[in-house]
Amino acid sequence: MERLKYIILGAGPAGLAVAHTLRSHNETSFLVLEKEEEVGGLCRSQEVDGKPLDIGGGHFLDLKRKEVLDLLFQFMPRSEWNEFVRLSKINLRGIEVDYPLEANLWQLPLPDQVDFLESIAQAGCLHGQPMPESFEEWITWKLGSCIAHEYMLPYNRKIWSIDLSLLGTYWLYKLPNVSFRETLLSCLERRAGGSLPAHQTFLYPKSFGFGEVWKRMGDALGSQLVTHEEVHSVDLHNMVINGRYKANRLITSIPWTAWPLMGQLPEEIQSAISQLRYSSIDISYNPATLSSKAHWIYDPDESRDHHRVLCRSNFCTGARGHWTETNSKRKRNSAPWSYRNEHAYPLNTRDKPAAIRKIIQWAHSLQIFPIGRWGTWEHMNSDVAVAEAIQLGKRLTRS
Prior knowledge:
The chain is α/β, with parallel strands linked by helices and 399 residues long. The chain has eleven helices and 19 strands.
């Protein structure tokens, strides 16, 4: 039996970040367990057609969080990254329009602009109507019927592939906030208006895929990282993992939906876990290089199975081709190369906040600390996962 102060489940961005934070604070009694051959989780890369492709979909390093950059640059210096000003597009009415749509309607032909502006002007949020609790109703209330029915609702049906009435509205603060006044001014002045989206400026490796930085972080852990070690049992009373590793504290970034298979859980926690929903995503590569200058393109057209296209040649040096992201339930067409991410996106269902709050409170009572996209069941970018893991590592070393 190997006895340690900390065992970290999962070597994705969050697990790697908390491990290196513990180490930087002179804590060496820890071990990271990862079920895959390689670390990185959804941010892994694989060589496809002679260049790297990110098998979890499009992942990029945001520049907003200094503590995240300080950590990652220890393993992959700033000189090894290219910097890009984000160019993302929406395929709408046969035209590629810059994202976010409501800030860039001016790029549409004038009659189309009028259609959308008239619709936005009739939105319930502008006329004192109470904010709806239903996701579908909220989208129309906030953005008007044209944006709702031509873009937001079909796109969300494609990416989540569930009844949209099951989604809550608590997460919609993440959407760009562009007022009607800003939208109108942008059309009159023919320029983008309103707040800027995430990853407005981002980094991508010059010579590698995004997975390279996580690979280096894993390599740096040496014997404190064990790969090919899928967690199949957790003795919660004795805090023993797989009958081999005993911990004082457990840090977990693996999906809660896997936990009922690993050991006996309290009935109320099993019930809460059963309320959590997630989607699977297929990544498919196509060697054709698109003419678009965009880094990625959102596609709400429900006649096509994919919801997003990543133009690899526009951010990966010397690469050609593109890849698509498709909800696995919608996948219809085969591709020469594809990869399925079983756990891709946690779903923001109405009952999720109460369920995950109950799970995390129970976990904390046992000295189990959830982190990352799957520990907190939050659709977060890698920089957010790393930032939160750094803060947890600091708190634990102070306690």
